[in-house]
Amino acid sequence: MSLLLSIILIIGAAFTTIAAIGLIRFPDFYTRMHAATKAGAFGGIIILLLCAFYFASLKVAIIVFVNIIFFYFTAPVAAHMIARSAYINRVKQWKGSKADELKGNITLKHHHDD
Amino acid sequence: MEELYIYPWAITTAYMLLISALAIATWRLIYGPSLFDRVVAMDLISAVVMCIASVFAIETRNSVFLEISVAIAIVTFLGTIAFARYLEDEEAE
Question: Are A51 and B41 in contact (CB < 8 Å)?
Fold first, then answer.
């Protein structure tokens, strides 16, 4: 049981590290945002649930529940708003991107060469 | 029921992984081409700091550090949302 908890802790930390590696290895802003928000939130949730199992008390379970609500439900919202703001500000996509579904459906900012 | 126990080598490995994640995200924060890359790097840095607080709570068997994690999550979410809205509405023509 102790070995299982230790391995789960290392897996949760490894997911967060994989998110950071994706933050430097991907070529584009949008792919980097995708990797960082998704994998980072998942690694954090694994470590928080491990805390809930490790302390095994109702108080810690309630704290972990509130933490999961505020972290796992708001991280995708923040990522979506940052990506939309970047698209409006004309951040370039990678040359190998296949799709641009938002083209023509949103008003971009004008260039003002600064 | 036996007392749950997490080995110290696992805690040390988790600290090493999370500190390397902090270093990589800080590199992106410094050298990011655009402002938005830096915002995403700050978001990931806050997530890594939350994980470090959780591992520290496990290490010291003190559940107070999980409430730090809640506060960091709320403040980071509000900061990211405010940053996105500000950069959308910056039209000063």
Answer: no
